[in-house]
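Extended Data, panel c. Modelled sequence:
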Amino acid sequence: MAAHLLRSGNAGLEITIIEKRASLGRGLAYSTDLPEHVLNVRAANMSAFADDPDHFARWLKARNIPIDDPTTYFAPRRLYGEHLGELLTEPRQKGGPRLRIVDEECVELFQRNGYLELRLANGSSIVAQQCILATGHDVQRTAAGRCLHPRKSSNPPCPDRPIAS
């Protein structure tokens, strides 16, 4: 959603992403580093932008990823996660004030008189006019480094989250 908003052309738009993970865009699905964990959709059909269906395939080619045909290539999930993360880091590198990343966790949301207050785990708050809730998967990490997912019978290794003490 943030990548789409950044492409909107609205120069006055300011976006804040509150994310406690070290890397953006990966989520649970694209956090794996195992090359055998591949997308279940061909690279030619994985664009983040409906109006630019070859976006991901061009990204792969620009990085010299050896693929013969994006219509038959199933990319490793890790690569798609890198791609999504770059969609958010590229605008930041251009120096614009439109995107801010806050390395924290939002724990409460309050509607106030004409605005929203997002309370963070560290006790600080962020004020916003609008908010998009993208909560991700409800997983917890065990001391053995496995994820406990409430609806899954297997518990894969957790992505880059610290073990809770």
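The beta strands are 15-18, 99-102, 106-111, 116-120, 125-128, 140-141, 147-148. This feature is highlighted in the accompanying rendering.
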